[in-house]
Write a structure and sequence with these properties.
A hairpin with a 2-residue loop joins β7 and β8 (154-155). The protein is built from four helices and 14 strands. The chain has 320 residues and is of the alpha+beta class. The chain has helices at residues 183-196, 203-216, 279-291, 299-317, and strands spanning 55-57, 93-94, 97-98, 108-111, 117-129, 141-143, 149-151, 154-155, 157-164, 170-171, 174-176, 220-228, 237-247, 263-270.
């Protein structure tokens, strides 16, 4: 079997913590436009007396916090086991309202998010190597020793992708953490419920599902914990993610998928081309392919990005 490497570097996830999607209008699922901001108006330290953003709390979302955040213990793990700390560090709370650590977003309230402040999410990138018998290979793909298909001399990965009801984009299994829940448990719970509808299976059918997922999770590794730039973020609520890699070395989760609530499809997707992913999901996939030393259809994008960064660095280094 090919060697699995999941070593990461500190700056791999820089794009995830940018502040671009958090400024986009209209706000998802609404016709609400954010307060327009110039780049220098985003930091909270910049005084901006005319800043009066619209306020939005989606009444159709099952909010898990009170209507007002006043009294919640931000920057702490509270008595109910809710982690209200941020991976970014301590964030400001003004008049009881938490302030997005990345700056203004042009919208107040919780928006579509369930909690005030950081909303902790687990995202699981499940992978396996594509074997020759899974599907017919193309002329540019060949079988490596052990039956693993390669393209351009690198093993081809298959990634577990979902489509949610009403969406045209693929996503990874993802969900918010429950109080007192470890991130590993959250990754496994979300995968079980979304891809196997585990909670709704009778007991004798749950055991083989759990055995298969437990086996795959022997290759579980947390990749990063970080703030995530997302169009659902607001001034007072934002998403922070723990991204994990689960490499199904023994192909334990080959079949038997049962669609969980809100899931339209679950499938193993061979990454020989760029799948139709949300931009944040694309970054996670790119880095996973790099860490597992697999064929990477994004490699041109990554090289251009690196060259651009090097050029910028070189330019900044030149004396004026």
């Amino acid at each position: 079997k090919a060697v699995v490497s999941t070593q990461s570097t500190g700056d791999q996830w820089k794009t995830l913590v940018s502040h671009k999607l958090s400024l986009t209008s209209p706000y998802p699922g609404t016709e609400i436009d954010r307060f327009a901001l110039e780049k220098d108006q985003i930091p909270w330290k910049k005084k901006f007396e005319d800043y009066k953003p619209p306020y939005f709390d989606n009444e159709n979302v099952p909010h898990l916090d009170p209507a007002t955040p006043v009294g919640l213990k931000f920057n702490h793990l509270d008595e109910e086991g809710i982690d209200r700390t941020s991976t970014v560090g301590r964030f400001t709370v003004m008049h009881g309202f938490p302030k997005n650590p990345k700056g203004r977003t042009g919208l107040g309230g919780r928006g579509n998010l369930p909690r005030w402040g950081p909303n902790k999410m687990a995202i699981t990138v499940c992978s396996r190597y594509k074997e020759k018998h899974h599907q017919h290979t193309t002329r540019s793909e060949h079988s490596m020793p052990g039956g693993i298909v390669n393209k351009d001399g690198q093993p081809v990965l298959e990634i577990l992708l979902l489509k949610m009801d009403g969406s045209n984009h693929y996503v990874f299994p993802q969900g918010f953490l429950a109080p007192n829940e470890t991130t590993r448990h959250a990754h496994q719970r979300v995968l079980l419920d979304l891809c196997f509808d585990y909670s709704n299976q009778v007991k004798h059918l749950q055991k083989p599902i759990l055995d298969a997922v437990d086996g795959a999770f022997k290759q579980y590794k947390e990749i990063t914990k970080t703030y995530m730039d997302d169009s659902m973020n607001t001034d007072n609520a934002w998403i922070e993610v723990t991204v994990a890699s689960v490499h199904d070395t023994d192909n334990r989760m080959a079949t038997g998928f049962k669609l969980g609530r809100g899931v339209e499809s679950v499938e193993w997707h061979a990454i020989t081309e760029k799948p139709n992913l949300h931009s944040n999901m694309s970054l996670m996939l790119k880095k996973t392919l790099t860490m597992l030393k697999a064929y990477n259809p994004y490699v041109t994008d990554l090289n251009m990005s690196d060259q651009g960064a090097d050029a910028a660095s070189s330019s900044e280094a030149k004396p004026s």
